[in-house]
Design goal:
Elements lengths: L11 H12 L3 H8 L3 H13 L6 E5 L5 H8 L3 E6 L2 H13 L9 E5 L12 E7 L8 H10 L1 E12 L5 H23 L3 H11 L3 H11 L2 E9 L4 E8 L1
Parallel strand pairs: 1-2, 1-4, 2-3, 4-5
Antiparallel strand pairs: 5-7, 6-7
Helix pairs in contact: 3-4, 7-8
Bound molecules: S-adenosylmethionine (SAM).
Length: 242
C-alpha cells in the first residue's frame, strides 16, 4: 500500500511538509542508520565535485538539517541553505549554534521558502546543490528550471539522490530493502512506517539519474555527468550551465 505521505498532484507539497515535520527530530540519526553512515561519504563526494573556491556563492536547496550546507561553507563559500520545512530548519539552526564552523569557512544562512519559487535573483549563485530533494518536488521540471534560473552562466549544478540501478537484479534487491526494511526505521523512530515507506513511492515516480541527465541537457547544460554510487542505488548528477 502506498505511503500516506505520497500523494501526487496539488496535495503533494503539503504532505511532504507533514512528512518532514514528523521526522525532523530523528532525521539525522535515521539517515546514519539506514545508509550505514554512507550518506556522509556521498555528500562529501558531492561537495568535492562542486570544486568551490573561497568567496564563491553557493545555494543548497532542500537543505533539511543542513548537512550539505555546512560542508559547502567549510570550503570557504558563502552559503545559503534553503528549505520549506520549519521543523528541518529548526534542527539546522540548532546544529549551527552547537557546532561552530572552522576559521576560513564562508558564511552560512538559512532561509525558508518553496524550491519551486526561489526568492533569489537570476544568475546569483556559482554553485547550486540539491541532495535528496529533487525527488520530493511536486514538479520536477519546474524545480530544475528554478535551480537553473538562479545559477550563473558557467556555474555548477549538483543533484544527489536515490537512484534506480541499471542492473535489474540489483535494483530488485535494493527495492526490497526500501520496501521492507526502511519502513521499520519509520516505525521504530517516528511511530509510523509510512514516513520511510515514502522513499520507494517517491523514487518510483522520479525519473532518477537518466531522467535528470536528459532534463539537464534539454535545459542547455554542458558537461553533464552521472556518477553512480553503490551500484546505482545512489547517484550524483553534475553539470555546468552554458
Ligand atoms: C530528504 S530531505 C534532504 C535534506 C538534506 N538535503 C539532506 O541531504 O540530508 C528533503 C528536504 O526537502 C525539503 N523540501 C521538499 N520539498 C520542498 C520544496 N518544495 N521547497 C523547499 N524544500 C522542500 C524538505 O522539507 C526536506 O527538508
Amino acid at each position: 500500500m502506498a505511503s500516506k505521505f505520497f500523494v501526487p498532484g496539488p496535495e503533494r507539497a503539503p504532505k511532504v511538509e507533514d512528512l518532514f515535520a514528523t521526522i525532523a527530530p530523528r532525521y539525522d540519526v535515521i539517515n546514519d542508520l539506514q545508509s550505514f553512515g554512507m550518506h556522509r561519504l556521498w555528500k562529501g563526494r558531492m561537495v568535492e565535485a562542486a570544486r568551490l573556491r573561497p568567496g564563491e556563492q553557493a545555494l543548497d536547496v532542500c537543505c533539511g538539517t543542513g548537512d550539505v550546507t555546512f560542508r559547502l561553507a567549510r570550503t570557504g563559500a558563502d552559503t545559503v541553505g534553503f528549505d520549506f520545512s520549519h521543523a528541518m530548519l529548526a534542527v539546522a539552526a540548532q546544529r549551527a549554534a552547537q557546532i561552530p564552523l572552522p576559521s576560513g569557512s564562508g558564511t552560512v544562512r538559512f532561509q525558508q521558502g518553496d524550491a519551486l519559487d526561489l526568492p533569489f535573483v537570476d544568475r546569483s549563485f556559482d554553485v547550486v546543490t540539491i541532495s535528496y530533494g529533487l525527488r520530493n518536488l511536486a514538479d520536477f521540471h519546474r524545480g530544475l528550471r528554478e535551480l537553473t534560473r538562479v545559477l550563473r552562466p558557467g556555474g555548477r549544478l549538483l543533484v544527489l539522490d536515490f537512484g534506480k540501478p541499471d542492473f535489474l537484479p540489483w535494483r530488485w534487491v535494493y527495492f526490497q530493502y526500501l520496501e521492507r526494511i526502511c519502513p521499520l526505521f519509520g516505525k521504530v523512530f517516528c511511530g509510523d512506517g509510512d514516513t520511510h515507506g515514502y522513499i520507494l513511492d517517491s523514487l518510483k515516480a522520479y525519473p532518477a539519474q537518466h531522467g535528470v541527465d536528459s532534463a539537464l541537457r534539454e535545459l542547455g547544460y554542458v558537461e553533464t555527468r552521472i556518477q553512480t554510487l553503490l551500484g546505482g542505488t545512489m547517484t550524483l548528477n553534475t553539470a555546468r550551465r552554458r
